[in-house]
Amino acid sequence: MRARLLLADDHRMFREGLAAVLPPARFEIVDQVEDGQAAVRSARRLQPDMALLDIGMPLLNGVEATREVLRAAPRCRPVIVSMHCDAQYIGAALRAGARGYVIKSQPASELVAALDKVLQGSVYLPPRMADALPELLHAADEERTDPLTAREREVLQLIAEGRTTKEVASVLGISFKTAESHRTHLMQKLGIHETAGLVRYAIRRRMIEV
To answer: Where are the domains of the chain?
Structure first.
């Protein structure tokens, strides 16, 4: 039986490349989307077996999307794809519930092997990081100090991407007043009082790529 797979990456050529290298006899691509919010909606609607998520997506990054995909489709097994082989990135992905982390510079055969390993119930890490699990989990524990709620992190990423409060409200399907309230609360929690400070915080937390 083929595994039903959701692809999420904001680069169409890369998505199509991924779809082309996955053996059709083993994987059925049920949807291809270009941002984290769309990935969550698709997961809720289609209930895929797996989700292959780029870590640097707009609207909702791969780590946050992993959390939300698992809420929307609890049986799904998310796998992160990233350019970064960094303990904090990988630790954050594991803490969010990712079952695999694949580096974009790895060969396509390694991606297929990673997906097979995750389907078998294991966790896949890049070969050079496979022996560093304690360090990765420590990095993940550091991420837990973030005082923001999931919704506030969504708002923060959108602000850091340059979205206005009106655009934030539209993307998240909430009222302008609610979006403004989230912005105010996250600024108070972080002790930050200007947009530039929020952007710097989002970059430090690796919520957006620069």
So the answer is: 3-142, 150-204
Question: What is the per-residue pLDDT for 135?
Answer: 63
pLDDT score for 207: 84
As a whole number of angstroms, the distance between CA 198 and CA 138 comes to: 25
Which residue type is seen at 201? Y
| Identical topology for domains 3-142 and 150-204 | no
Residues of the chain with pLDDT under 50: none
Q: Which CATH fold topology does 3-142 show?
A: Rossmann fold (3.40.50)
- The whole-number pLDDT of residue 134 equals 57
d(CA 77, CA 52): 9
The token duo for 39 is 């990935």
Return the CATH number of the domain spanning residue range 150-204: 1.10.10.10
CA distances from 166 to 178, 181, 196 (A): 10, 12, 18
